[in-house]
Structures are given as structure tokens and as C-alpha cells.
Design a protein that fits this description.
272 residues
Length: 272
Amino acid sequence: MVKLFKKDLISPERRSSKGNQLKWRDKDVWYKADYAGYEGLSEYLISHLLRYSDLQPEEYVLYELEEISYGSRVLRGVRSRNFLPDGWQLITLERLFRNVHTRSFASDLYGIRDHRNRLRFLVDQVVQMTGLKDFGIYMNRILTIDTLFLNEDRHLHNVAVLLDENGEFHYCPAFDHGAALLSDTALDYPMGEDIYQLMEKARPKTFLREFDEQMEISEELYGSHLSFSFDKKTVRTLLEQAGIYEKEITYRVETIIYEQMRRYEPYIRKKG
């Protein structure tokens, strides 16, 4: 357990449709507390499963579970190492577009009727603004992660690039999976309801409202660039190590992951 103080609180710059979690920075470690359910468990499990993917360690943020003592409360959450070198900035796509064009990226994006043209517009704009020529590949990886794990909070305030002290842009590691795996038990996905019906309700926010279509369009335009190699035992072992969460919660998450493994079997090779 770590004890944190008001002086360590970080004011949120990125917006979330799920509300803003309490976040702190203590030296070179970031902490986030659960807000609407079991966001920390989602961050932990998904980031550890990314260890069994095509991504290199520097291409994703690894989260570890943490109990946080803050004031008179003990909160569940996660910690992660700061991935920003000194002098670097994390800039969301919405903020980047507004800085360049002084208008809303999301409004321009959703003003385009054709879904393929929406993603082309998103990627082309970022390439023009940053020079990151493989941003389409990057988006395919992000959308694949979000589809496999049902992350419904990946909007333009929640996709980012990095800017170094010399004005050069870099890809941002995959981060912020807290709204995945039906973690919002306070409002949208209450405990005790049918898991499979709840899974059908989950909707993305990146450039349309269907997970499968988002991923299919990204593959059609930019190819498929992410696969995994984990099995049920891997998932079970990770959840057994999540003792700060009740069995009812870890069982629910296990059920969701197993169903997604069945649905998206071509993306998940057998371990070994």
C-alpha cells in the first residue's frame, strides 16, 4: 500500500466520458484510483496481456495493482512508471488539431459520413501535423486492443502523440485501458446482470459505434499489425494475483476475456 497526499494530485488534462479518476504523481511513478468500478483491474490485466503480443516493451505502459491510502480512504488502483522523458509532452489528438486548426477534430471527423473516409481523415491529419508516417499502423494496433478488450473510451481526447524538447513527434505507448472489460459497474454495467448481454451493449467512441467495423476498416486501409499468444491459463494466473478484487469481479473479467478469446481466435495464437 502506498500513502499519497493532496500535493501529489494531478489535474486531468484529458477528458473522459466516464468521469475523471483521481490521479497522482509521486517522484517518477503515476497512480490512478478506481472511479466507477474496477478500472485498475482492467489496466493491470490488459497491459500484462500485451506482454504476450507483437508489441515491444516500450510500445505499451505496464500497470501494476496498488492499494492507495489517501486521506481517510483506502482506494484500489494501479501504478505505472512515468514514460515521458524530461522535457517531453503528451498531446492528445484533439488538442493537437485544435492547436493547429483552432477548431474541433471530433466535429470535423464526425462530419464525414463515410466511415472509411473518417479513419483516412483522422490518420492523414495526424501524419500531416506530426510527420508520423505509420500512424495508420499505430491506429490499427490501438483499435485491435480496444476491440479485443472492449475499451469504450478511446476518443480523440484519449489517443495521443509525444512531443520532445526539439519539436519532434513520437508515437505514444499504448495506455489507459481503464474503461475496458465492462469496468463501469456503477452506471453502465452493474454487477449481477447477464455478462453476455452487457458485452453486446459496449460501444467504441473513436470514429464510429461498432468495434468490429472499426477494426475491419483499419485492417482494410492499413493492414493487420497486432496479434497475441496467451491462453486461458495465462489469464487465470494474472487474475489469481489480483487479490485486492473480490472473486465475483475477477470471475466476471475472466468470463469476458474467455468469450473475447473465442470470438477473436485468429488474433490470439496458442501460447508456446
